[in-house]
């Protein structure tokens, strides 16, 4: 009998199961469920589903019991929907919400979805912006609020973190041990989306991105089998999970490498008016190019147009991993006249909360991304074009337009080569890379088309300019991309390899067809964008 029992597998040496065939052609979902302790025949509503192709409703509550399942009309269901950051994600109405306690529950959800063909989505911090990215309209939305353990290994080198954790919880927990991990810069972001998509951190120049610092993943595969993917077991799956998004499995535990981190570090913002923009652009470029000189430093510049005053502002966010007030690498930035300066020594968690305050929940939101070679003219161009397009939509109710400029530095790209490299398809030879995350917040659905068009305009003009200047880099960063952008398609040499990993671990395309939200292996989440 082919019982894909997780128990059996965990007793076998990795070499025995890591053969060419992970899921046999005659894989039997009903039997796999039985191995998880779920007898489909004993659940009346489910019994007939294996034969029927479409589901009238997800009968999953019968398996999990009421405590782990919320359905429409329950207040806990509403609370789950309200938890999403953007209102577009709140527009998706799942048939039910499942709150697993453990990886086996997640495995059962995947198998029930296969049996019933009911689509599903999983949510960690809920900060992906577009509808359906982490919630399944009419399907099953899995949330991890009951999976929030953070456990340190005895030698304190690895923090085992379940997917319900936000970076604030993670940093505050590890701070007690004078440790940190490479993770998000905003407190309310989840570990799940940020890490599987890449993960830019304050510590990226020293250690690489979040995905580069995952020692191993506990992951639920398409056949419900739970494996530990690391550089030495299921290494191809491990590679794919580092930047390949939700296409290969659901991660139920992130085993992150820790590093020593004192109680305080340096961080904060210096804000500039337009008279300081040329100097700010110089400082941005110089720090981006020279980051190897002191990889403890981190930066980004966000530009925004204030709707009430019409004033253009550039905000330089500066961090330094140690509690050093005037690190010499920031001297150029320091010399630029700022109308406000919040830089100080404080905790990592504090700085992430400051950024959370400027990204409140409950608005319409979109983000878009593009990359090029780092070049002063390109940065200047982004300033000019962004302000021009912002001005065209500045009358939109509740508008907060922004473009955040970053550098994927050579040290970051070098760190990405660790552990066999990640899936992003970029290398030190491409660097430094200029990366933008264009983001807009607004109030009303009625303004969606105008806002989307303005964002699309910036991206289109950016690509055209990069081409004109011979500065092209096609990389699209998943965590900053819109639903109209083909992220995986931008991964260059990684694309075919990712598809072959999926073919092996998910031959029936469960994570493509039954979990359709977010960035899939074949094209953008929404094809044929009306905004060109
Ligand atoms: C205010 C704000 C600040 C940000 N700051 C940063 C930053 O500093 N650095 C950076 O790199 N990015 C940043 N981002 C982008 C951010 O990384 C992405 O939006 C990311 O997807 C959010 O992760 P989440 O877990 O909160 O999102 P979710 O919406 O919960 O998930 C996003 C996607 O990841 C998938 N996913 C979630 N958990 C799992 C899991 N356990 N296994 C498999 N797939 C999973 C979901 O299915 C979904 O498709 C920021 C975004 C916002 C809105
Ligand atoms: C799967 O297994 C069940 C239980 O053993 C059996 O009744 C069913 O016919 C099998 N289905 C297929 C498609 O083989
Ligand atoms: C599953 O449930 C059916 C119906 O209750 C029962 O006949 C069958 O023996 C059960 N199978 C197992 C393996 O427990
Ligand atoms: C800066 O903005 C002000 C209005 O806020 C404008 O009058 C001035 O011309 C701008 N200066 C530059 C250098 O762009
Ligand atoms: C840091 O530099 C600022 C000026 O940029 C100065 O006012 C301050 O005293 C310096 N602090 C330290 C600790 O050197
Ligand atoms: C982030 O900000 C929101 C307000 O928009 C707040 O409700 C939430 O508690 C904050 N989260 C964290 C982890 O700081
Ligand atoms: C863009 O990046 C900055 C820095 O990570 C972050 O503060 C901002 O929230 C991001 N916006 C989006 C929508 O990802």
TrEMBL record:
Pfam families: FAD_binding_4. Keywords: FAD, Flavoprotein, Oxidoreductase, Signal. Gene3D superfamilies: 3.30.465.10, 3.40.462.20, Uridine Diphospho-n-acetylenolpyruvylglucosamine Reductase, domain 2. InterPro entries: FAD-bd_PCMH, FAD-bd_PCMH-like_sf, FAD-bd_PCMH_sub1, FAD-bd_PCMH_sub2, FAD-linked_Oxidoreductase, Oxid_FAD_bind_N. Residues 1-18 form the signal peptide. Residues 90-261 form the FAD-binding PCMH-type domain. Coiled coil: none annotated. GO terms for molecular function: FAD binding; oxidoreductase activity. Belongs to the oxygen-dependent FAD-linked oxidoreductase family. This is FAD binding domain-containing protein. It comes from Setomelanomma holmii.
